Amino acid sequence: MSLAIVHSRAQVGVEAPTVTVEAHLANGLPSLALVGLPETAVKESKDRVRSAILTSGFDFPARRITLNLAPADLPKDGGRFDLAIALGILAASGQIPADRLDTLECLGELALSGALRPVQGVLPAALAARQAGRALLVPRANAEEASLASGLVVYAADHLLEVAAHFNGVTPIEPFQAQGLLRQVLPYPDLADVQGQAAAKRGLLVAAAGGHNLLLSGPPGTGKTLLASRLPGLLPPLEEQEALEVAAIQSVASQSPLAHWPQRPFRQPHHSASGPALVGGGSRPRPGEITLAHQGVLFLDELPEFDRKVLEVLREPLESGCIVIARARDKVRFPARFQLVAAMNPCPCGYLGDSTGRCRCSPDQIQRYRGKLSGPLLDRIDLHLTVAREATALNAPLAGNETTQRVAAQVAEARRIQLKRQGCANAFLDLAGLRNHCSLQPEDQQWLERACERLGLSLRAAHRILKVARTLADLQPADAIGRAHLAEALQYRPGNQTG
């Protein structure tokens, strides 16, 4: 047969569109043409594949070979198509049966010796192959990652000779079985390690229960970073689909999705991070910190030290839960449904309002420092907490009632109520959800409107107060939002913010 078709997958963001590798042999002077918008690494696959076929003991056809990677308008890069190209040439030249390639997709880079090398972005391809109803053939180093897609038949091989022997029926490759892979959960830091800070722990509970964004403000050494690092342990475990989304992002970002499967990510970029580092970018768009924090926590310590333009790019993802990176040739959409936790000092020296009275900052210095943060960004943070200095007690026992296990149980019950009622956490309620699930008594609504007017709060801030109040009611639990819930929710909002 002079024509063979092999199925593979490209990588575009966290998507894996199908690519059909067509190999055609014709009479004429020996040549090899590769078409279908291949980039440099794909063009170089011609030489890798030729050497791999010859060193594996197969015949490289001395004919006019045309390789087409369809669709032609989809850019292809990397060495992920090497195996598919080699199998297409072997099938077109009759060295392996072409009919056995229809139910299979394959990924893998070839060494000159014919050995299979791992590629990145295997998990999105595995999920797409499962949806298409095909099996997946990958290098053995990628097999565990591909097996995260439950229900998918995964074949793993180390060499092109193994693959050829499988298709020729000489030595069939058995489907890969993961051994002790899943649910290797590492323990989270315990909330009981945080000494004192009852009000801050209460705010952390509310943030976890409703998925709300959180800002911690206080002098140095009061435990802001310690509190933030405890938040992931309070959040409910990831559902399988959510865990696969997180693992797929880590896969395309060249990180091992198996290292912390299936835990929520906790990302802590340095304040010198650039805009592209935070939201993603590059000529070939790659995920940034907000995408790597998808379904987890993004912690920004020393918030005013970040460049203001960098922080402003967070505004849209905080609302939409995704980021679209546009380039001249294409657009790539990355998910970014993260929970923002930020920490800052109240002034440049850090000791404004501290009981020691050490602050020597002038009002102008304080204003300039706080002016680095825009009102619209602060407006999108539901809970603003002041973390005060606690009395020093080095030998005080750390254990207490507020352990991670106990607080996580409260969070899980509140989330269960929310999912049953509206299908999402309270922080993600839209306007229709607010009308249906956050209704108030007329007198309470008038009271809240007057309070927002006195504090100079925007309509967005008022909506977020309702969401926080709904979370406080769920923690009680109570069917309706009461005046006490609204009053506590208002305590978490600073005044005079618009945007």
UniProtKB/TrEMBL annotation:
Residues 288-387 form the MCM C-terminal AAA(+) ATPase domain. Residues 264-286 are annotated as: Disordered. The keyword Nucleotide-binding applies. SMART domains: AAA (SM00382). Pfam families: ChlI, Mg_chelatase, Mg_chelatase_C. One of its GO terms (molecular function) is peptidase activity. SUPFAM superfamilies: P-loop containing nucleoside triphosphate hydrolases, Ribosomal protein S5 domain 2-like. It comes from the Bacteria. The lineage of its organism: Bacteria, Pseudomonadati, Pseudomonadota, Gammaproteobacteria, Pseudomonadales. The keyword ATP-binding applies. One of its GO terms (biological process) is proteolysis. Belongs to the Mg-chelatase subunits D/I family. ComM subfamily. Keywords: ATP-binding, Hydrolase, Nucleotide-binding, Protease. This is ATP-dependent protease.
